Amino acid sequence: MTTLELTARPKAARSAPSSRSRTLDKQQGKRSVMRTMGLAGAVGGVIFLLAGCVNVTAPDKPIVIELNINIRQEVIYRLDADAANTIEENPEIF
Amino acid sequence: MRTPLKTFAAPAALALVAALGGLGLSVAAGAQARDPAYAAAKAAGQVGEKRDGYLGVVGTQGADIQALVRDINNKRRAVYTSKAASLSSTIDEYAFTTGCRLILETSSGEKYQGLDGSWKTRGAGAPERDAKCP
Fold first, then answer.
1. pTM value?
2. What is the ipTM of this complex?
3. 3-state secondary structure of A51
4. CA of A59 vs chain B CAs: smallest distance (Å)
């Protein structure tokens, strides 16, 4: 809607060429260029905002954390002797 | 007057000691003995040792077996939690280490979780264990 108005003005000026109208045309052209740039900026901003939207969808399956990641090898060696005692001390649950 | 009191007091004290001793014994026995239902389920391969140090239900079992496994795992988690805290490790690490031993200690015919996650029956040889096991 605004775009039509902007492009129409310089065209009308061009149809009657004269030195005065040419400078006017130049000024108007500058202004219209600036306006167009502003509009382009606004449109670009909207597109940027739209593109910037991150869609987060919840996974349908439960997240499974790999067991191996949490287990550190050196710790296991340290715990081993204690684990043996634990099993011996709690035979009702092991 | 004094003599009858004494003669009464001595057996009473003895009885008290005997009662306390009996109570202590039964409590100790309760902590030691494995629940017969658990022992039976384990021997029958209805429950198995998982790689993470907890008990698992093998295949489809009744609600009683499922409740049994849940109960034992709750108790195990409590033990793992307190032990892990005292040794400044994570609960998962302590549970995993215990699981390594529990799989190693399975008797022939008992179930354990193999490396691919499926249930294996312990045979005469060494069980399939994680490379991280000590």
1. 0.57
2. 0.73
3. helix
4. 23
